[in-house]
Amino acid sequence: MSNTILVGAQWGDEGKGKIIDFLTQQADIVVRAQGGANAGHTVIVGTTQYILHLIPSGILRKRTTCVIGNGVVIDPIGLVEEIDGLKKSGIDPAGRLHVSDAAHMVFPYHKAIDAAREALKGKDRIGTTMRGIGPAYGDKVDRVGLRMGSILNVKRFAEQLQQAIKNNNALLKSLGATPLPVKRTMESVLKAARRLKPYVTNTVQLLHEASSKKKRILFEGAQGTFLDIDHGTYPYVTSSNTTAGGMCTGSGIAPNRIDRVIGVAKAYTTRVGEGPMPSEDRIVGDLLHGMGREYGATTGRERRCGWFDVVTVRQAAMLNGITDLAVTNLDGLDTLESVKVCVGYLLNGKRVDHQPSDLRQLAKCRAVYETFPGWQSPTDKIRTWKALPLNARRYAKALARLTGTKLSHASVGPARSQTITL
Ligand code: GDP
Ligand code: IMO
Ligand code: MG
After folding, report:
1. Looking at domain 4-100+200-260, which CATH architecture does it have?
2. Do residues 115 and 180 make contact, with C-beta atoms less than 8 angstroms apart?
């Protein structure tokens, strides 16, 4: 493996953290390049479960260098909490974790604005993770944000922060929300900023030097293709480019340095938050929630569930240039007599094979299904492709064939060992 991008091919929570952890054994550096603490990537090592929000999942392997790139929005208080959480588990990120000086910061007022805007939207809310992602990226694009590099000059940073809190308190008032206490907010941010100083560096340079030394770089996409600000189901999306191109702009690594793009998809579909999802089906939700599965790793919200949607994953393959498909949670379907797959949509009686970009049109799309025979036997203890039940193999292969990809991994449980490489 040389330089590899891994992206979510659906609406997030595809099992990216688990597959990244598995692939990290063949990587030198793992990079997050977009999103922020809205991500929740679950990795299980032995009997310990880790949920990573900002720190790349590669941190769990001792020799791996981890980079939080310029495209990420970083909540300094949250990042310190995450570092301390890892330290408690015996993993010290110091010296192995590098944070871009050009990454923008998420402050408590971004979170408060996120919450206030969602409340004002009422039934039209996006269903955000409330991590301040939209307002922080908004400030970045508006050119009024503060970047991680600014914490290196604490005195000046304190002045800029104070002004920003005051400005945003005015905004909060206009949104009908309570302004933040200036002194206390300053103290909590400055305390975190001081702790983060040693991690801040020019990660573009770092990555280029590593790349010229033939170090293997693995990009850990956050969210999923259909939460992309441009290519997702706008406005029910996140505020960054979650697709493969976002990994290049969000890290400073050029597109022609990328050798492989892996798409991760669940063997079914899930989504948290609002927005259309044509293959949503209560039967799948009841099945998975009944097993205690499909609750959000960041917010604990119940995920909406449905059948695998070929239309979306095929579109994800096109948008990201997916070469390899990792299918996760195959074991979630173990008990079913038959498994449905959405192979197309009906829009006003006409068959369509791509997602209409107009949200109202997409909301009108009805799923057209093909039914596959189930395998009705547990797969979680299976470790080789050949040992999987024939119908499970046929199903997983069909998902790759129908989406125009090559099946590279099949995952049958949350642990490292429950990953089958083809
Ligand atoms: P991410 O955001 O893409 O990293 O995914 P999340 O961690 O938010 O959600 C995926 C969930 O599925 C987590 O609870 C994982 O531990 C779990 N998981 C991943 N792959 C598998 C699998 O193949 N089988 C089972 N049973 N669970 C899995
Ligand atoms: P990972 O990396 C699933 C969703 C939210 C909401 C929308 C906008 O774990 O796959 P935001 O807080 O980003 O402004 O919310 O995007 N969302 C995710 N859904 N997995 C994620 O990350 C998500 N990050 C954001 O639920 O619908
Ligand atoms: Mg997640």
Report:
1. 3-Layer(aba) Sandwich (3.40)
2. no
- Residue-by-residue pLDDT tens, the chain, 422 positions: 589 999 999 999 999 999 999 999 999 999 999 999 999 999 999 999 999 999 999 999 999 999 999 999 999 999 999 999 999 999 999 999 999 999 999 999 999 999 999 999 999 999 999 999 999 999 999 999 999 999 999 999 999 999 999 999 999 999 999 999 999 999 999 999 999 999 999 999 999 999 999 999 999 999 999 999 999 999 999 999 999 999 999 999 999 999 999 999 999 999 998 999 999 999 999 999 999 999 987 778 899 999 999 999 999 999 999 999 999 999 999 999 999 999 999 999 999 999 998 999 999 999 999 999 999 999 999 999 999 999 999 999 999 999 999 999 999 999 999 999 99
Determine which residue's CA is closest to atom 25 belonging to ligand 1: 413
Which architecture characterizes domain 265-421 according to CATH? Alpha-Beta Complex (3.90)
Question: Atom of ligand 2 at shortest distance to CA of 240?
Answer: 13
Active site residue 142: no
13 is catalytic: yes
CA distance 252 to 3: 13
Coil vs helix vs strand at 51: strand
Is the domain defined by 104-196 classed in CATH 3.40.50.2300? no
CA distance 227 to 233: 7
Please report, to the nearest 10 degrees, the dihedral formed by the alpha carbons of residues 182, 185, 188, 193 taken in order: -90
- Ligand 1 atom at minimum distance from 298 CA: 8
Q: Report which bound ligand comes closest to the CA of 270.
A: 2
Q: How far is the CA of 128 from the centre of ligand 2 (A)?
A: 6
